[in-house]
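Suppose a colleague, Dr. K., hands you the sequence of a protein chain of 124 amino acids and asks what its three-dimensional shape might be. Before reaching for any lab equipment, you can write down a predicted structure in token form. Begin with the sequence itself:
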Amino acid sequence: MDSAYLKAKNICHQWIDEYSHDGGFERRLDIFHGTDWRIKRDDPTFYAAAYPEIIALTRLLASPYWQALAFENLSYPHRFIEEVRRTVAPHYQWPLGVYRERYEPLADWIYDQVMIERGPSLLD
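The predicted structure, expressed as tokens, is then:
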């Protein structure tokens, strides 16, 4: 569970850094600080604002059921993506096209897990 939490935390923080999938994060910081907020990453409210998405994503990354759905169709894991949109990031976009053409941390986690569990030949 710890590794799923840490991975979810890293993915969510990368999304925040890239200004993608962060509507809830931004809204919570507006509530904490007003619309003119300027905080450092080590501010406790940064972690509080990111926490709901981190925990929601941890649930998916730690669950054998959701992992299986994430790994079932590497070109577009439809059911897994729908759950990510429903519970974590409503505007999440799966990177289409050639893998690693566009960096996306959640897709990278999925591909890395498949390579660890099943071998790199499945990605060719």
